[in-house]
Write a structure and sequence with these properties.
Oligomer: heterodimer
Shape of chain A: flat
Shape of chain B: globular
Number of strands of chain A: 0
Strand content of chain A: under 5%
Order of helices and strands of chain B: HHHHHHEEHHHHH
Distance between the termini of chain B: 16 Å
Largest interface: A-B, 54 and 58 residues
Helix content of chain A: over 70%
Number of domains of chain B: 1
Number of helices of chain B: 11
Number of strands of chain B: 2
Number of helices of chain A: 3
Strand order of the largest sheet of chain B: 1-2
Radius of gyration of chain B: 18 Å
Radius of gyration of chain A: 16 Å
Largest sheet of chain A: none
Structural class of chain A: mainly alpha
Strand content of chain B: under 5%
Chain lengths: 90, 285
């Protein structure tokens, strides 16, 4: 028997699945309506999905009192945010 | 905005991503050369490709997570290195001349072709975990269920520091060229960490999104992402990723791999020529 997926795996799968559908729907709608802003919002959602995924992991590790896990998730988020902000300015 | 151009871009990225998915890799390495061939400027192509890399990673993640092939904890630790690399890559793009970008891309295409030729060897570590190694301290060891037998197989994560170094390089290349850089991730996971192949593929796919988000976010805020190009490309790769994952099991891959090696070689040649300012296909722009 395969072990039942634990809560975190299942949550992450759902977040990414729902997010992908939503972002794809926005991009499709924007392209058909020739509306560049809607396409950009969809693309922005795509880009934010992996970041949201790290936030979900950070929350799960914090709740589970997993010090290493929470610290690493927090650090990854910090690198991404600093990178995006500094990279956009540079 | 949807004219024939959008449909062409959608088709190209659909094809690249489907073929990539069938071979268990992201299609970014095909998308950028394909886009430059139809006249898209390379930096625009890279920005569009990095979005599509995120899209296909997210689209194919769910089933791998549900079957627990993905080691999410290990992915997070390795992402420290890949995101740091991606941030470095974003700064590098600023001062790297475009012609050099084409040449670096050609080298990566050749390396990918070479990797396609060498079979991945199952070298999962069977030795017991020692209490002092990083894998134990950070609780990264795991187990997965072999789909063909239903048996649960445990594995130990080895040599984390050397894998982190390769992952940093993978992050730089990913941001620089707009690709998932499986060409560096796969050796890091197979040979340094000694992961079972299925676990390393699933975990690598999961990490690609976060790595790419670090650079894509910067390109997005800079205004480098053109919706008319990135939009159809992202959609094509979502559909291609889902399609490719399905075909992955159906198609006998030996002939396909050889075809792919040839395609990668030709693209490397084409990118080299473009790096020297020679366009084989009349660029439309």
């Amino acid at each position: 028997m395969s072990p039942a997926p634990d809560g975190l795996h299942r949550t992450l799968a759902s977040v990414l699945e729902v997010g992908t559908w939503l972002a794809s729907a926005l991009v499709t709608a924007g392209l058909f309506l020739s509306h560049a802003t809607v396409v950009l919002v969809g693309i922005g959602l795509f880009i934010s999905l992996p970041i949201v995924r790290v936030v979900v992991m950070f929350a799960a590790f914090t709740r589970g009192r997993d010090g290493w896990g929470a610290a690493i998730a927090g650090l990854v988020l910090t690198i991404i945010v600093l990178g995006v902000v500094l990279g956009a300015a540079g | 905005m949807t004219g024939p151009h959008g449909v062409l871009l959608f088709g190209l990225s659909l094809a690249a991503s489907t073929i990539g998915g069938m071979l268990g890799m992201a299609g970014g390495v095909l998308i950028v050369p394909a886009l430059t061939m139809v006249g898209v400027e390379i930096r625009t192509a890279i920005a569009a490709s990095i979005v599509s890399v995120i899209a296909s990673s997210c689209a194919s993640a769910a089933p791998l997570l549900r079957s627990r092939l993905t080691n999410v904890r290990l992915a997070l630790v390795l992402e420290l290195a890949t995101t740091l690399g991606a941030v470095s890559g974003v700064f590098l793009t600023g001062w790297l001349p475009t012609s050099l970008l084409f040449l670096v891309f050609a080298v990566v295409l050749l390396a990918s072709a070479k990797q396609m030729l060498t079979r991945r060897v199952e070298a999962a570590s069977v030795a017991k975990a020692t209490p002092a190694e990083w894998g134990t301290v950070l609780r990264l060891h795991g187990s997965y269920v072999e789909p063909s037998t239903g048996a649960e197989i445990g594995y130990v994560v080895r040599r984390l520091p050397s894998a982190m170094a390769l992952m940093y390089a993978a992050g730089v290349i990913s941001a620089l060229l707009g690709i998932g850089s499986g060409v560096l991730k796969i050796p890091a996971m197979d040979t340094a960490l000694r992961l079972p192949l299925k676990v390393s593929s699933a975990t690598s796919n999961f990490m690609i999104g976060v790595t790419a988000a670090a650079s894509a976010g910067a390109y997005f805020l800079r205004g480098d992402i053109e919706p008319a190009i990135a939009g159809p490309v992202a959609l094509g790769s979502v559909v291609g990723a889902l399609l490719g994952a399905r075909l992955f099991v159906v198609v006998s891959s030996e002939r396909l791999r050889m075809l792919f090696v040839v395609v990668l070689g030709l693209l490397a040649l084409q990118m080299t020529l473009q790096g020297f300012g020679i366009h084989l296909f009349g660029a439309m722009s």
